Every structure is written in structure tokens, then in C-alpha cells.
Amino acid sequence: MKRRDLGRWAAAATVLAMGCAAWVPAYASEEAPDALIKRISDEVLATIRADKSLQQGEVSRLMSLVDSKIMPNVNFTRMTASAVGPAWRQATPEQQKRLQDEFKVLLVRTYSGALAQVDDQSVTVKPLRASPSDPEVVVRTEVRGRGDPIQIEYRMEKTPAGWKIYNLNVLGVWLVETYRTQFSQEINARGVDGLIASMSERNKSNARKG
Predict the structure, then answer these.
(1) Which residues contact 64 (CB under 8 A, 6 or more apart)?
(2) What CATH number is attached to the domain comprising 95?
(3) pTM value?
């Protein structure tokens, strides 16, 4: 597979991974994390195939989807704090809110175009290596479609509201750690406000590009 095609395939798999937290019903807290991922993966794939606006990467539709379906089932505060690193603890509540807002937009816009790559994929969940009492687990899956299969891993935590995703790994690369490297460079050079400004400008630039 060509590197360009592999990149697109990986991006599509990442979108699927982000979307796997969607459509979780009230009884999700009684559902095993691996069973939840499998069921939701199948539902997300079916929804994407049936929604042309999602396939075309329509940002407003994606933002609505993220706000209403995905964000309530992801510990996004933990995800953002981990990506920002030690500077998160020194940030003011207003800065933390701005960081989360800009990070969410950045993720949505970064992967919006990849939705068009979702077509005939199917998801297999590998046996869960965990005990029922574990507060955190890693759910490993394999996405098959055109080209080589893609390995996706989810780091999940048990909360009173059910299992929540706080990190994901596509092709051996953890999303949070990838952004932490980028963000630390901005923070070291310009501080937390500089990172916020950088993400804001990147989001505006992406918006202008459509």
C-alpha cells in the first residue's frame, strides 16, 4: 500500500475510533467495554454510510455529532490535560476551557475529510485482557477493509456513568502522546496562551480552507 493511501486509511480509522464512543445508551454502564466498542463500531459505520453530509466531512454536521453523541462518552478533560502535559495544572480555569474548546475543533477539523474514506470497513474486537475489577482497560480492535488491516486500541476508564475513552492508538501511535509533543514545543516557546493562540489560528486557517 502506498504511504499516501495508508495515511488516508489510518485517518479514516482514527475517525472511526473517535466515533466509537457515540450512541451509547443508558445501560452502557452494565456493558463490558469490549462489547460496547464492538456494538458502537457497527452502529457508527452504518450511520456514516447512510449520511452523505458525514461522508463529505461537513464540519457543522460533525461538530453537532461530536457535541451531542461523542463528547458525553469521552473523558475529554482528561484527554486534553494529558495532551497539554504539566502546564495544564498551572493553567487557569478559563485557559483550560479554551484549551478544550480549541482542541476539540482541531480534532474534528483534522479528521473531517477522512470520513469520505469510510466505505466497506468491518471491525473485529480482540479478546479483552482484563479482570472485571480493573478500573482501566485497553480494548484492542482490528478494522478491515481495502488494503491492510488497521489496528486500533482504546484506553478506557470505568466511571459511575459507564466506560469512557480517554486515549486511542492507531497504527501504533497514541493520539494524546502525539499532540503532547507538539503542544510542549508551543508551551516552551510561548506559554499556555501561546498554545491557545496557535490552536486558534490553526483552526481558523483550516476553516478558511473549508
Answers:
(1) none
(2) 3.10.450.710
(3) 0.76
Q: How many domains does the chain have?
A: 1
Q: Give helix 175-209 / helix 93-111 axis angle, nearest 10°.
A: 70
H-assigned helices in the chain: 3-19, 33-50, 52-55, 59-65, 76-84, 87-90, 93-111, 175-209
Give, for all 210 residues of the chain, the pLDDT tens digit. 444 544 554 555 555 555 554 434 434 447 888 988 888 778 777 777 888 887 777 777 777 766 766 677 789 999 999 999 999 999 999 999 999 999 988 887 766 655 556 667 888 999 999 888 899 999 999 988 877 888 889 999 998 888 898 998 988 889 999 999 999 999 999 999 999 999 999 999 888 876
Residues spanned by the domain of 185: 3-209
d(CA 5, CA 47): 23
